[in-house]
C-alpha cells in the first residue's frame, strides 16, 4: 500500500494498492513500453507526451545511475 499525502494539507491522503512494478533503464524505454494513459497523461495529452517531460523531476544522470520504475497502482 502507498499513502499519498497532500503537500499543503497533510490531513488529505489517498491510499493506493501497488499492482505492479515496471523497471526500465530510462524514461525513453518506459514510454516505449507502457500505455501512456496509465502514466498519468490525459488522452488529449498523449500525442505531445515525451520522456523529456520527466526530466523536470529526474535528471538523465539520475536515470542512468538509478534506472526508472513505473509503479502501477489502484485506488483502495
Describe it for me?
A 3-stranded antiparallel beta sheet has the order 1-2-3, covered by helices on one side. The radius of gyration is 14 Å and the shape is globular. The chain starts with a strand and ends with a strand. The longest helix is centred in the middle third of the chain and has 7 residues, at 27-33. The protein contains 2 helices and 3 strands. Helices cover 18% and strands 32% of the residues. With 76 residues, the protein is of the alpha+beta class.
Question: How would you describe this structure in keywords?
Answer:
76 residues; alpha+beta; 3-stranded antiparallel β-sheet; 3 strands; 18% helix; globular
Q: Largest beta sheet: what is the strand line-up?
A: 1-2-3
Distance between the termini: 9 Å
Strand % is: 25-35%
What Rg is obtained from the alpha carbons, in whole angstroms?
14 Å
- Counting H and I runs of at least 4 residues, what is the number of helices? 2
Shape: globular
State the share of residues found in helices, binned by percent.
10-25%
Structural class: alpha+beta
Unreliable stretches covering 5 or more consecutive residues: none
Number of strands: 3
In short:
With 76 residues, this protein is α+β, with helices and mostly antiparallel strands. 18% of the residues lie in helices and 32% in strands.
Amino acid at each position: 500500500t502507498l499513502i499519498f499525502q497532500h503537500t499543503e494539507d497533510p490531513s488529505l491522503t489517498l491510499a493506493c494498492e501497488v499492482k505492479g512494478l515496471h523497471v526500465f533503464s530510462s524514461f525513453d524505454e518506459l514510454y516505449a513500453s507502457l500505455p501512456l494513459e496509465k502514466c498519468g497523461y490525459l488522452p488529449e495529452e498523449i500525442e505531445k507526451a515525451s520522456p523529456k517531460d520527466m526530466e523536470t523531476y529526474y535528471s538523465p544522470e539520475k536515470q542512468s545511475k538509478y534506472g526508472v520504475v513505473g509503479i502501477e497502482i489502484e485506488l483502495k
